[in-house]
Amino acid sequence: MSSTTETTSFDPCSGCEIPCSKHACYPSEIAKEIDQGNMIGSVEKHRRHLCIGQSIPPSQWPKDINDLQGDYIAELSRVLKEKKDCIGYSIKLSSASVVTTTTTDDPSHTADWYVFPDQIKITNVNIKQIEQIIQTLFVDDQSVIKIKDKTKTIEEQLKENNNLPSFDDNIRCERLHGLWLLVCCHYQRDQRCGVIGPMIVDEIEKYVREADLIDKVHWLKVSHLGGHKFAGNVIVYPSGAWYGRVLTCHIPVLIDAYRSSSEDLKSKLKPLYRGHLDTTW
């Protein structure tokens, strides 16, 4: 009589069985389309990430966010391009689906700005004020982090009690505290991110609730980040680390690694590492 023994395989990052029975698995037709090639170096160089928050569901984002109704992103892209040489470094621009706190009769021309790794939120920015905000933040270098101050690292500046930038009375600026996870959910750009991203966000919400981290861990559904073939794509701020091929079962270890600053836990995430925000001077 012969017998066969089935061997159980485990995910090297989460330790979950493959397939995982505790966390939601991606649809097979999506999972098979995920690129398993090398991800290191797949992040375009950038020193800041600007997320434009509006009450627009990810399902309504066009393939190119510059085509969003109201031309807010298109105008912002134009100003960033026009001032590129004065700014002196690359800025990643994304749309974010949020419940805005703006009070306006013209929501398509008003947005909340989330600036990383500065960890600040600028509320109620009208399309007519875009140029002023870009000038103050990025050209005049008046944010919490002074990119052009080469004497201090980003990490050192974040620990200091730097003053928030000041704007017109109707624009509010506040610090963002805790850990922030940005998840690509841009379906019309690529269905892999469009299907996987919301599943990752569901898992983040579930874990944050169960671990009682409501005030400590936050997330944004964002538009195309680049590298959708490596979905799920997640960026961690203020660290600026990019991860790809993220599964739902990776979320607990990802959050715990950056909440605790555990190098041991971060080392488990190395197979998912894509790259990093440019912090070199």
Automatic annotation (TrEMBL):
Q: Which InterPro entries match?
A: Aim32/Apd1-like, Thioredoxin-like_sf
Please name the Pfam families in this protein's record: Suc_Fer-like (PF06999)
Q: Protein name, please?
A: Sucrase
